[in-house]
Amino acid sequence: MEIIRMEDVSVSVNDGLRDKLIFSGLDLSVSKGEKILIKGRSGIGKTTVFRLILGFTRPSSGRIYFQGKPADSELFWDIRKRATHISQDSDIGEGPVMALFEEVFSYSANHGKFDHDTLDMLLTEFSLKREVLNKKFENLSGGEKQRISIIISLMTKKDIFLLDEITSDLDAALKTKVVDYFMANSEWTVLAISHDPEWEREGVRIIDFENIVSNEDSVNKVN
Ligand SMILES: Nc1ncnc2c1ncn2[C@@H]1O[C@H](COP(=O)(O)OP(=O)(O)OP(=O)(O)O)[C@@H](O)[C@H]1O
């Protein structure tokens, strides 16, 4: 079943001086349960695709459908209820890690989703000791921050995962564990932006962003 469809989508942003085209001509179809790896050079617009899916960036032209329906403000709310975005910026908070969990799970959208057993299971799964919960988030290593972000995201019980470079600071064994975890659930739809070859697994659709959009650079190259 197709859950997300983009047709001929262009995105422009105003950088304060002028409207700048980020890309145009994006066609993308995502089926439920699919695992997709998005590759492409820095700045080409990969994260922008996640923002389009969540409705935080609107297309300047083209169409977005969610389960066959044209996406409007109401539908973007439905998507946000089902989707979790782990940002490339792993600095998601300050203060004790446990307080961060308490804060995230106090939001009305996440009410009732916190449970200690799942947290313990996920800490073990990703090789974190329970003591990490008492440490200040800002003092954790990059890899620890990434794993805490992953755990928070998993505990919100969503089924669409938008993962932006979530394994960049992990060692090889942990990269494998994280990718294994996201691959194992056939119900989850996973879109991962990554430069890690670890994501290039059998069954993963690899999209080279460079090949599916046009942008000013590619126009310049042609001319
Ligand atoms: N709100 C905005 N205002 C101005 N420029 C923006 C805005 N949002 C995105 N951009 C620009 O659009 C381009 C694409 O950004 P995006 O984050 O999608 O790229 P990316 O492919 O994910 O890059 P990276 O791999 O470095 O994360 C960049 O040049 C970025 O500076």
From TrEMBL:
InterPro entries: AAA+_ATPase (IPR003593), ABC_transporter-like_ATP-bd (IPR003439), ABC_transporter-like_CS (IPR017871), ECF_ABC_transporter_ATP-bd (IPR050095), P-loop_NTPase (IPR027417). GO terms for cellular component: ATP-binding cassette (ABC) transporter complex. The keyword NADP does not apply. Pfam families: ABC_tran. It is found in: Cell membrane. It comes from the Archaea. Residues 4-221 form the ABC transporter domain. It is a peripheral membrane protein. Keywords: ATP-binding, Cell membrane, Membrane, Nucleotide-binding, Translocase, Transport. One of its GO terms (molecular function) is ATP binding. PANTHER family: ENERGY-COUPLING FACTOR TRANSPORTER ATP-BINDING PROTEIN ECFA2, HEAVY METAL TRANSPORTER. This is ATP-binding cassette domain-containing protein.
